[in-house]
């Protein structure tokens, strides 16, 4: 183990690490605009930050990380920006093969049906190829919406009721959870949104019921390991009662 990893391991032994951190990768467009660049350049810089933060989370021992890459509402953006984001996503699927050797499980959250057959197959293949890895689970939300996630789960349970396999009165939270896109991943402990906005924008609504929220004015392309450490330190100062006293 290198000096950096030994140092981080010592630091982390003295603080509680969230089991699941969710990131809303916001501020890419503004980052580019401030530099007189097209918004798509901000998304490319944001993709670099995404890779750095993923690796850092793995190095310090975070077991589950989620990233909000593209929402169901983002299709309303200008076509050239949407095309640039989808192209980055294609590049990511190729590049993420590097994570396979690092024992990182990859899951894609959201409705895959809207994508072409080739891209959808690459997503499914990557999920299957990494399904047995357990050092960290990385979830990438693309064409994802929290309300859509809940509706998707409700439709699945409704179909079981229609088929006579389940009574409406028997439906519980424990039954609902496995039908969400996140399935066996634990709920969010810490949700981080850079860029100064203070809302969760339809991201992991069910899973963030008792999450701690952390907002910062730093734009996502400028978000780094030091900023993440600040968020985790703040998390350690929160009192999590989960409705109790």
Strand order of the largest sheet: 3-4-2-1-5-6
> Helical region count?
9
Architecture in CATH? 3-Layer(aba) Sandwich
Mean pLDDT: 90
Q: Which class of secondary structure composition applies to the elements?
A: alpha/beta
The number of domains? 1
Here the CATH topology equals Undecaprenyl pyrophosphate synthetase
CATH class: Alpha Beta
Shape verdict: globular
Reading the helices and strands in chain order gives HEHHEHHEHEHHEEH
Stretches with pLDDT under 50, minimum 5 residues: none
Distance between the termini: 42 Å
The level of helicity is 40-55%
Query: What is the radius of gyration computed over CA atoms, rounded to a whole number of angstroms?
Result: 19 Å
- In percent terms, what proportion of residues is strand? 5-15%
The largest sheet is: 6 strands, parallel
Number of strands: 6
The CATH homology group name? Decaprenyl diphosphate synthase-like
